[in-house]
Amino acid sequence: MIDRQELANEILLREHIRRAISIVSSRRGERLSEEKQLRLHLRRLIKEAQTAVSTQAKHASTGINTLEDLLRNSNILSVLETGFKSLTTEESQRKSYANHILVAVEKILAPEESRKEAGENIAVSTQTTELEEDISLEIGDKPEDDPDFIDVGEEEVVKADGEVEKEEFAISGEDKTGRNKAFTDFQTIEKVILRAFDDLDNPQDRELFTEYLIKNLSLYFDKYESDLAQNVEEPAAAEDAEPTLEPGASEDEDIANIELQEVLRHLNIDDIIENLL
């Protein structure tokens, strides 16, 4: 038969153990709360610092500053990352996507650069142009140029604008799925790029903008490919692994039990009982 005194001592001991568990859990909760507040504060400071830095010009070239603003504050990178990473069937699709985007960027900026250069010389050619407009071009005019001429020739088969544009966009030998996705996404980012480029009047700024835009896009495509490579499958051994926590047990409870064991390891049970009596 269990002695009543021993039973009372055991009850008191269990009560003190419960209190110890409560104290440990409470202190851990307070510590986690403080850590959470600290993390939030640090994130806020980092965000404020990034905002302050982003508003300052950090490069000696206006063209590079314009490019950084374009990549940082537009949807270009998010559109390209989403499109690139959606092509997961074959690597050739992603390579085709990247190549089409890079070539397309170069193609749209080249005529813009020519137009800018022509604009710089427009003052020189203005007088010549006015004189040419006053000259009658009667010699060598074609009959078809007469406004009264009615053309009844055979009509050529005309393709849809989108189909023609896609064929002109295509690179021979590249994957068509990657081409089609690149064509669609490029329609989204084309005007944003041209708008930024059009703000630059200095030839050197335009040259640096074009060069480093293509170079940075290429580097980002390499980064996206690396990101996909890191998404490795779960090892087969992990599929059969048993959870470390028992069903229904939380991580905090498990940690509290471990800490309690550490507390009890350093307690003298005889001293506790003696103090309780």
What does this structure look like?
With about 280 residues, this protein is an all-alpha fold. It has helices at about 5-55, 60-75, 75-85, 90-120, 120-135, 160-170, 175-200, 205-230, 235-240, 250-265, 270-275. The longest helix has about 50 residues, at about 5-55. The two termini are about 20 Å apart.
Topology, please?
Layout: H1 4-54, H2 62-73, H3 76-85, H4 91-120, H5 122-134, H6 161-169, H7 176-198, H8 203-230, H9 236-239, H10 251-265, H11 269-276
Brief description of this entry?
This protein is an all-alpha fold and 277 residues long. Helix content is 73%, strand content 0%. The protein has eleven helices and no strands.
Features:
single chain, 277 residues, mainly alpha, 73% helix, elongated
Structural class: mainly alpha
- Classify the helix fraction into a percent range: over 70%
Oligomer: single chain
Return the string of H and E elements: HHHHHHHHHHH
Tell me the β content. Answer: under 5%
**Radius of gyration from the CA trace?**
36 Å
Low-confidence stretches: 135-140
What's the rounded overall pLDDT mean?
76
Largest sheet: none
Distance between the termini: 21 Å
Shape: elongated
**Number of DSSP strand runs:** 0
Number of separate helices = 11
